């Protein structure tokens, strides 16, 4: 998951991890505030694969896109699904694009096409939704992008990194809970940024961005960050794992494996109140995988949970965690308890 937030965090005492607990918060201080300074070089050095795209007939949508859109409190009837074809794969990616998204479908096609195909093949669908607070998460290899603009390549790399990690795209399996990762993490005094402090899953994802940068941008990460050595063992570990697995973060090559697309369903299946007139038209889209494509087994995960984010609720800033004892809110001595009754006035509109 990604959220564009800059925090002022105090230093805490560092501890050495002795086992792999990938969902617990980390206490190492961040090296930098954010990755904004990497964006231009990433865009310049990760070329976009040749592409074309075409919209589905109205009224059809992938099941995962429909479910995630509804859970976000938005109307699936406002989604247009696109087949996005890249020259490096014989099977299209399905991009579900909300009509009120702040970005353009062309930008989404461009950014996704800049993710090296070795890693991109572990992405199932991309869902693009509007939001005043830019953020993203990965749900079972579906990348959900909220308000991510045309320069957000690091976000696409970050969310794809979750698929590589949690879908076990590496030859050795999951990285974030592997002892090799923990051993190398313990050798560094820092994590890359405040977001990497969330847990090892997010730390691996941020270090995957650094590993991709280090592999592809001339001069590597040390060419732009004077203190790169303070996180070296972490991003170097990602770099080693991706190299062992076929240079997943290096542009070039073609796809040979993909996740199966989720079931194609009607936008209005009679189970919800959607805009009138949104009925399936034309033939049901064919979303079968291309010839010779090996199927990647889908694994269930949701990186939004690691940041206490729930659909339909305001995203909390990172670092706002419970501290000290739980406040005592018991009533004072001698106070009689009034039985609560459930009601809501609906608010005021002037």
Describe this structure in words.
With 350 residues, this protein is of the alpha/beta class. The protein is built from 8 helices and 11 strands. It has a 7-stranded mixed β-sheet, with helices on both faces. A two-stranded antiparallel ribbon has the order 3-10. Strands 9-11 form a two-stranded parallel sheet. Helix 5 packs across helix 7, helix 6 runs antiparallel to helix 8 and helix 7 crosses helix 8.
Topology:
Layout: E1 2-3, H1 39-45, E2 51-55, E3 60-62, H2 63-71, E4 79-86, E5 93-98, H3 105-114, H4 117-120, E6 125-129, E7 135-139, E8 142-146, H5 153-166, H6 179-185, H7 200-216, H8 232-244, E9 257-259, E10 264-266, E11 294-296
Parallel strand pairs: 5-6, 6-8, 9-11
Antiparallel strand pairs: 1-7, 2-4, 3-10, 4-5, 7-8
Give keywords.
single chain, 350 residues, alpha/beta, seven-stranded mixed sheet, two-stranded antiparallel ribbon, 23% helix, disordered N terminus
